[in-house]
Every structure is written in structure tokens, then in C-alpha cells.
């Protein structure tokens, strides 16, 4: 192996996280219930961005800890609750959603994240829209 390759590999392993661009990003969620008259557009923040990953093609040359497939995920979050307008009395009019306070590059935790990219975008309203901040 050439000295340049070895130095590049070490630099990437040591400073890889500093090159990541993972941060809270503005996002709008559209929420509606069949029983309610309106769709609610909620402005929140989610974690989004680029995280340094390492190609597993060199897995025979590297330690397992050096082979990471990190995603941009929540470091700190809080939940807020919004009231969906136009709901009849027998329907729970509340919707709780996460707000990203800070983000990190790490393993995807399925307890609070969808770790699979969805194929069909369904983030839109079919009813008259109300805005919630």
C-alpha cells in the first residue's frame, strides 16, 4: 500500500465525523383525520443531511468498528402536540410530533425513526388546510 493511501485512510477514520453535514432542518408535516374537517400543516424541524460512511469493500482490511453506515438522526428531540381543527366531539383531535433540537451521525434507531426511505410521498392534504407553527 502506498503511504498516501494509508494517510488518507487514517485521516478519514479520525476526522470523518467532522466532515458530516447533519443538522436540524425545517420540515412541514401534513396531518388529517377522516373524521375531522381540516388538514393541519405543522412546521417542525427534522434531522437531515450528509453523514460520512465507509465503504465495506475494504472490510477484509479494516476492523469492524471502522465500517460504519451512519445516518443523520436525533441527538436531542422534544415532542409537541397540536390540535387538529374541525373534529367532532367523539374524535381525539390531538397529534403529537417530534421536533429536532440537535442532530448527530449515528446508527438508525427504529424506536423513533423511520430507517427506510419511503417510495411514495404522501405528505399532502386532501382537505382544506390550516397552518400550525
Automatic annotation (TrEMBL):
One of its GO terms (biological process) is G protein-coupled receptor signaling pathway. The gene is Tshb. One of its GO terms (molecular function) is hormone activity. Residues 21-125 form the Glycoprotein hormone subunit beta domain. Belongs to the glycoprotein hormones subunit beta family. This is Thyrotropin subunit beta. The keyword Glycoprotein applies. GO terms for cellular component: cytoplasm; extracellular space. Residues 1-16 form the signal peptide. It is found in: Secreted. It comes from Sinosuthora webbiana. Heterodimer of a common alpha chain and a unique beta chain which confers biological specificity to thyrotropin, lutropin, follitropin and gonadotropin. It comes from the Eukaryota. Gene3D superfamilies: Cystine-knot cytokines. Keywords: Disulfide bond, Glycoprotein, Hormone, Secreted, Signal. SUPFAM superfamilies: Cystine-knot cytokines.
